[in-house]
Design brief:
The protein is mainly alpha-helical and about 190 residues long. The protein folds into 2 domains: about 5-140, no CATH class; about 145-190, no CATH class. Helices cover about 55% and strands about 5% of the residues. It has helices at about 5, 15-35, 45-55, 65-80, 90-105, 110-145, 165-170, and strands at about 155-160, 180, 185-190. A 3-stranded antiparallel beta sheet has the order 1-3-2. β2 and β3 form a beta hairpin. The longest helix is centred in the last third of the chain and has 33 residues, at about 110-145. It comes from Bacillus glycinifermentans. This is DUF4240 domain-containing protein.
Length: about 190
């Protein structure tokens, strides 16, 4: 059974870099959920919830989190078209960052942090997808403007978040700005 089947998601997809990174994060979420609810193994998310309700002491059971999983978490995941994930480095980096944060919490020194990481990932995934598509569309629009002019761009510096780069990002049209900032990289017209 694939990790996507475990979460009751579409399981037919190409094995691309983006799908591999999402699957790693989903696997980590599954492992965290099993450990969080003290369940050795579950065949899918539905069985995990059922076992958690049956086997856990109701005084210590996090019923609010189980309710969130059933009523909000799974429906949010199921609304995502996992066959059309943005296959770009920005999206992969966001997923890998969430994977890193959750993996650092897997010692369960603070179980609430594990729960927060899972909720944050599920809630943020649609936003990651949308913002990655916007950046891709923005880049294509800038590189292939609707006019018949062709612009060539070259990278002149890469920044994380610096004042100079932020200043160039608000200097107007990326085509007219020289240099301009997109997604952590400073460009100029060649």
């Amino acid at each position: 059974m694939s990790i996507r089947e475990w979460f009751k998601l579409e399981s037919n997809y190409e094995e691309t870099k983006v799908n591999v990174s999402v699957d790693r994060m989903l696997t980590l979420c599954r492992d965290a959920l099993n450990k969080y609810f003290s369940i050795r193994k579950s065949k899918d998310i539905t069985e995990l919830v059922k076992i958690a309700y049956e086997e856990n002491n109701h005084e210590s059971l996090d019923e609010t989190f189980l309710k969130w999983i059933l009523e909000k978490g799974l429906p949010r995941l199921q609304k995502i078209n996992f066959n059309k994930l943005p296959d770009n480095e920005q999206f992969i980096a966001m997923v890998e960052y969430d994977e890193y944060v959750l993996s650092c919490e897997m010692d369960f020194s603070d179980p609430e942090e594990v729960r927060s990481c899972i909720i944050s990932f599920v809630n943020s995934l649609p936003e990651y997808i949308a913002s990655s598509r916007e950046v891709s569309a923005s880049y294509e629009e800038d590189y292939y403007p609707q006019e018949n002019k062709k612009y060539d761009y070259r990278v002149i510096a890469s920044y994380t978040i610096e004042e100079k780069a932020l200043k160039t990002s608000i200097s107007g049209s990326a085509i007219n700005a020289d240099p301009f900032f997109i997604g952590g990289t400073l460009y100029e017209c060649a």
